Amino acid sequence: MLPPDTLTLLVLALLAEAAVGYPARVYTWIGHPVTWIGAGIALLDRDLNREAWSAPRRRAAGVAALAILLAVTGLAGLAITAVLAPFGLVGLTIAAVLASTLLAQRSLHEHVAAVSAGLRAGGLEGGRAAVSMIVGRNPRTLDEAGVCRAAIESLAENFSDGIVAPAFWIGAGGLTGGLLYKAANTADSMIGHRTPRHEAFGWAAARFDDLVNLPASRLTALLLVAAAAIHRDASAGEAWRAVRRDARHHRSPNAGWPEAAMAGALGLRLAGPRVYGETRVEDRWMGDGSPEASAADIDRALALYRTACGLLLGLAVALAGVAWLIWR
User: TM segments (predicted)?
Assistant: First the structure.
């Protein structure tokens, strides 16, 4: 697919996902592309990750597993694209509906908004219950400000790897590009952990995910800075300052960019020391505002997120228009 087609596909996919998301009834009926990819990763993990093997051998097996996953996913994407190509606009529309399943604008908003609603309706316990659905840290260690920071951090990070990154790769490579990204990202979430089982086997998945998320994390930060310039209760200048100063200090090479931008825009401090399970992680703070976030700050973050999603759509439309002028 040429850029006019991939970028038009992206515009249609963003619009479709924002309008209807991924209906729960469809998920119950056929699952979701991530669950299908996840089943393949689980199979590779079971068959190729042998505890009796040495660490170098398990690392090599992890490289092979990632290569197999990407090859199968890429071939599936190319096959679907080839089948739909002869049908013109109808085929492009079907491909856009399929690509929309790789985006998470609507579901991310719903999950983060549920934390704000949970705090207001059920107090701290309601907020903890809602935030436990979207973060890996131990909710029992979180006070109300911690619950709110966790929700806002999840919003910022998942805006990057759940929306901007798949959008970037759909725009660059069509449905196949989006599927390849989603396969890499799902592999990282399943096996890219520093645990005894996955320290070596998941090394390739973790490093590859860092690489493919790099352009999107920077773009996400820019979108949040631009969105902050539109909102009267946010600061684009502070967002940009936090990104330049703090993003590189995050333990993740990518997550610090959107988190720092969100922190600076809202006048908050995000990240910092956290507890995952029983393990305390001493992360650097992003932003130099107050760590005392509230449900109202979650609402402000969601407003900023909605504007940034609109800017992403506008950018996709503009790039599609330029591509059509150049290639057609």
Answer: 28-48, 60-80, 308-327
